Structure formats: C-alpha cells, structure tokens
Amino acid sequence: MTTPLHRYTGGCHCGAVRFEVTVRSHVALECNCSICKMKGFIHVIVPQADFALISGAGDLTTYTFNTHTAKHTFCRRCGVQAFYTPRSHPDGVSVNLRCLDAGHAPFTIEPFDGQAWEANVDAIR
C-alpha cells in the first residue's frame, strides 16, 4: 500500500522565508528538551528531498549548541524558526508544524521526551 503524499506551504512570521514540504505521515512530535520547549517547536520531520526552500535563503541565520549537529535556522528579520536540521535526522529537515499555512488539523501530535534525548532518540529515527 502506498502512503499518500500531501504538499504544504509555510514560512516565518514576516513572510521573508517560505517553503514547501511533502508530508508522508501526519504525526508530529512535541519535544520537551530545553530549546524546543522554550520555542514551542512542534516537529514534522521529513527527508531533505521532501523539503524545498522557496524564498528567504539570504534572510536565514543559524544557531548551534552542544554537539553542533543540529542547525537551528531562523529568520533574521522576525526571529521565527520555521524549520531546521535536527540532530536526530542530520540528513533531513524538521518543519515547525505551527509554521504551516494549513495549520494543525490533519496532524496528530505525540510527545517526545527530549529531556532524556539519548535514551529516546532511537524511537524517532
């Protein structure tokens, strides 16, 4: 059975950064790690090939910490992080569900215990 593909658009608050993403699963993760909890980021993780930056490459800046594997990109104009490269999927993209134009309706949000990241990461890889 083939998984249906759904294409969504989204972006940052000011509109400088815009993207398209193909979603194969409507399960999103709400992580309780220090940075995700503070930002309110809800993860929709996709392969790099399912993500396309439409505009705003020049408006992006990056923050890293700890292992510096995750690349926390955000709009330098409005500060919103619409997507980033996660440590758990360094060859993928985590799109912020809250930044999709379509909203949350078709998604199920599941908790992820990122405070115990090392013990739990294999469940989402």
Topology:
Elements: E1 6-11, E2 18-23, E3 27-31, H1 34-39, E4 42-47, E5 51-55, E6 60-63, E7 72-75, E8 83-84, E9 92-96, E10 108-112, H2 117-120
Parallel strand pairs: 3-10
Antiparallel strand pairs: 1-2, 2-5, 3-4, 4-9, 6-7, 8-9
Q: How much helix is in the residues?
A: under 10%
Low-confidence runs:
none
CATH class: Mainly Beta
Number of helices: 2
Strand fraction: 35-45%
Please state how the strands of the largest beta sheet are arranged side by side. Answer: 8-9-4-3-10
Largest sheet, described in full? 5 strands, mixed
CATH architecture: Beta Complex
| Secondary-structure-derived class | mainly beta
How many domains in all? 1
Summarize the structure in words.
- This protein is mainly beta.
- The protein has one domain: Beta Complex (Metal Binding Protein, Guanine Nucleotide Exchange Factor, Chain A), CATH 2.170.150.
- Helix content is 8%, strand content 38%.
- It is built from 2 helices and 10 strands; from the N terminus they run E-E-E-H-E-E-E-E-E-E-E-H.
- It has helices at 34-39, 117-120, and strands at 6-11, 18-23, 27-31, 42-47, 51-55, 60-63, 72-75, 83-84, 92-96, 108-112.
- The strands form 3 sheets. It has a 5-stranded mixed beta sheet with strand order 8-9-4-3-10, with no helix packed on it. A 3-stranded antiparallel beta sheet has the order 1-2-5, with no helix packed on it. The protein has a two-stranded antiparallel ribbon with strand order 6-7.
- The longest helix has 6 residues, at 34-39.
- The protein is globular and about 35 Å long.
